[in-house]
């Protein structure tokens, strides 16, 4: 119901074809049956099926059951493009783990095939429904890392796996330690591609006053594991 007018008592509107088919054919619901409705913008509402046919389902809104959360301090995930299946898994899990937005990135070692942002956005929508989030993270089309960094004003926490291998001791703080010293304000979590950040990117990041490298443990994680590990640690530290 993402393209509806603002939700209000008594609003009657049509579900899109996929939703209509799911409600009528898969869930086999009929007129008068109650459903939970949200559009990622106006909170969650109790609705009643107003008219049901194989192809068309109209819903009447009865009452709001959950208010839309204020845009809190959900972290933005900056993820370098990785292979399609892994990227889709990252989108789904990052949605469950509370990522606010998901910015796709092209880095100097990104070997990405074609990225279908619309499909990734649908995955985020479906994951938000399953995890009962009222807001749906926006998946933002790929931009080059160096372009993004030119205007990034938020705190950038980036995973740097090399810290685990320099002479054995950890030269870069573990993420939870880095988060403990963080004040309020927007935060992005930046994860590199399968090939990692290259020397130029590492140099650029280490020179940024608003960027901090973090360690996600003593092993090299795949990009999808690193993204989920970082989001989980963020959630543990920030409670969102
Ligand atoms: N350079 C790695 C290698 O030699 O295989 C490849 C990069 S790793 C597959 C993908 C990304 O996950 C890295 O760019 C980094 O952002 C993050 N990452 C993986 N393991 C990490 C760790 N132990 N600590 C911090 N970040 C890590």
UniProtKB/TrEMBL annotation:
Q: Which GO terms describe its molecular function?
A: methyltransferase activity
The residue ranges of the Ribosomal RNA small subunit methyltransferase E PUA-like domain are 15-61
Q: Which SUPFAM superfamilies match?
A: alpha/beta knot, PUA domain-like
Could you tell me where this protein is found in the cell?
Answer: Cytoplasm
Question: In this entry, which stretches build a coiled coil?
Answer: none
For this protein, what is the EC number?
2.1.1.193
Q: Where is the Ribosomal RNA small subunit methyltransferase E methyltransferase domain?
A: 77-234
Assigned keywords, A-Z? Cytoplasm, Methyltransferase, rRNA processing, S-adenosyl-L-methionine, Transferase
Report the InterPro entries cross-referenced here: Alpha/beta_knot_MTases, PUA-like_sf, RsmE, RsmE_MTase_dom, RsmE_PUA-like, tRNA_m1G_MTases_N
Per the record, the GO terms for biological process are: methylation
Query: A Pfam family matched by this chain, by name?
Result: PUA_4
Catalytic activity annotation: uridine(1498) in 16S rRNA + S-adenosyl-L-methionine = N(3)-methyluridine(1498) in 16S rRNA + S-adenosyl-L-homocysteine + H(+)
User: What broad class of enzyme is this?
Assistant: transferase
Question: PANTHER family given for it?
Answer: 16S RRNA (URACIL(1498)-N(3))-METHYLTRANSFERASE (PTHR30027:SF3), RIBOSOMAL RNA SMALL SUBUNIT METHYLTRANSFERASE E (PTHR30027)
Role according to the record? Specifically methylates the N3 position of the uracil ring of uridine 1498 (m3U1498) in 16S rRNA. Acts on the fully assembled 30S ribosomal subunit.
Which NCBIfam families does the entry mention? PRK11713.3-5 (NF008696), RsmE family RNA methyltransferase (TIGR00046)
Membership in a protein family: Belongs to the RNA methyltransferase RsmE family.
Which protein, by its recorded name, is this?
Ribosomal RNA small subunit methyltransferase E
